[in-house]
């Protein structure tokens, strides 16, 4: 997303224990996504360089889901999502000099249509293993769009990062031209 938007950047893996934060978190998906994004930004930020961290969470019926560990778990997730409302929260944070300078989180509502066993199997045949890297077991830019009857919220949030608020924050800080 950053590349397509013309944001010059380099990608680094965060040295951050997400599982530790998830296990101890009390609160909604937005606040967890924000804590994860902030932790990632702080873990890669050094000196005066700006660091961007982003993360997403998914919950269905107040149960939080992580990326599936294997295809069997992906199948169980899709069964649980079938006919339900998925809340997908994404957050982004900017860090510099060892502190968080800015952050934003928002939630999209995705109405998952009823999914048959046959559909789940054929969907995973076509999309596995790529969707195994996605919380919610879907890529909206792929066949994942066929999981839903209705979507409310920002397309960028669903893709994993509230891009428009981030671009605004980058312009405010003089990182991007306004």
Can you walk through the features of this model?
With 178 residues, this protein is of the alpha+beta class. It has a single domain, classed as Maf protein (Alpha-Beta Complex), CATH 3.90.950. 34% of the residues lie in helices and 25% in strands. The protein has 6 helices and 5 strands; from the N terminus they run ααββαββαβαα. The chain has helices at 18-24, 29-44, 71-81, 117-127, 155-159, 163-172, and strands spanning 51-60, 63-65, 85-96, 99-112, 148-152. The chain has a 5-stranded antiparallel sheet, sandwiched between helices. Strand 3 and strand 4 form a beta hairpin. Helix 3 (71-81) crosses helix 4 (117-127). The radius of gyration is 17 Å and the shape is globular. The two termini are 19 Å apart.
Major beta sheet summary? 5 strands, antiparallel
Determine Rg (CA atoms, Å): 17 Å
Average predicted local confidence, pLDDT: 95
CATH architecture: Alpha-Beta Complex
Strand order of the biggest β-sheet: 2-1-3-4-5
Describe the global form.
globular
Would you tell me the structural class of the helices and strands? alpha+beta
Number of strands: 5
Order of helices and strands: HHEEHEEHEHH
The level-1 CATH class: Alpha Beta
Percent of residues in beta strands:
15-25%
Helix percent band: 25-40%
The CATH topology label is: Maf protein
Low-confidence stretches: none
Distance between the termini: 19 Å
Number of helices: 6
Q: Provide the domain count.
A: 1
């Amino acid at each position: 997303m950053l590349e397509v938007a013309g944001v010059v950047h380099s990608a680094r893996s965060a040295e951050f224990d997400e599982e530790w934060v998830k296990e101890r978190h009390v609160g909604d998906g937005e606040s967890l996504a924000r804590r994860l994004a902030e932790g990632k930004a702080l873990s890669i930020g050094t000196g005066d360089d700006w660091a961007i961290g982003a993360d997403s969470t998914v919950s269905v019926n107040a149960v939080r889901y992580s990326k599936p560990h294997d295809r069997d778990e992906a199948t169980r997730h899709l069964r649980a999502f079938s006919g339900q409302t998925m809340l997908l929260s994404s957050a982004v944070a900017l860090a510099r000099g060892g502190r968080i300078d800015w952050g934003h989180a928002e939630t999209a509502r995705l109405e998952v249509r009823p999914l048959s066993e046959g559909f789940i199997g054929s969907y995973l045949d076509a999309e596995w293993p790529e969707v195994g890297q996605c919380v919610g077991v879907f890529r909206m830019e792929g066949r994942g769009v066929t999981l839903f009857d209705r979507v409310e919220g920002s397309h960028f949030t669903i893709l994993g990062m509230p891009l428009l608020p981030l671009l605004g924050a980058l312009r405010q800080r003089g990182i991007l031209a306004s």
